[in-house]
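As a warm-up, study this chain.
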Amino acid sequence: MLIGSTAPDFMDVSHEWRRLFSEAWGTFLLVVVAAGAGVVSAKSAGAVSLPMMVVAPGLMVMTIIYFMGEVSGAHLNPAVTLAFAMRRNFPWARVPGYIGAQFLGGITGALFLRVLFGTAGKLGATVPGPGIGNGTALAMETLLTTGLVSTILGTASGARNTGKNGAIAVGGYIALAGLWSAPISGASMNPVRSLAPDLVQGRYDSAWIYLIGPILGSLLGVAFEWILKGGPSASGNTAAQGVLGSQSSGPQEP
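Now compare it with the structure written out below.
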């Protein structure tokens, strides 16, 4: 396989429904855990603490990478899908389908929480912390997403994103980011995670922060990866596209 090209097995459309289902199901689980932690904390009078709320999504993402990373690449986040596409590890033609599946899964997750718990805890919405201005929250989401994309692309370039090292690194980064910055911006780093609760409850006051911040962070993360490692790698394709339908666990070299 040529570096920066698309694997032939990835272009097999017979597997596309599996990849899209994988993205929808994984994003559903992520939103249920990430937003649900705040909801359950509100319903249980604080039994779920802030450290628990921010570590849980990291553990969920780590688990999802383990069980479905080889199917779709386990993007779970439009910012990650855009980063892989800009990095030339993922075909632009597949971006709308992946992002659509992510929003479907995320909104379904938020609806699930709404049916069970109403709007407790503002349905787990991410908002700037008390006394934190919109500009500060935007800068924080941009920075955090830049670090997340750097972590994902960095592990992907070594063919580790679908293995235990990538899962631990990405999940660990999400937990670490939340532990120190959640009181500032909520440490979302994911437009679907933030917009899904907003869409379900019809509140959009700060929604733009959690759309623009991750997109800017994605752009910066890709730029930094070019600075650090140059052009895209074949192993990055494997991480971004998964290996569903492959005859081997790695990319085929010419």
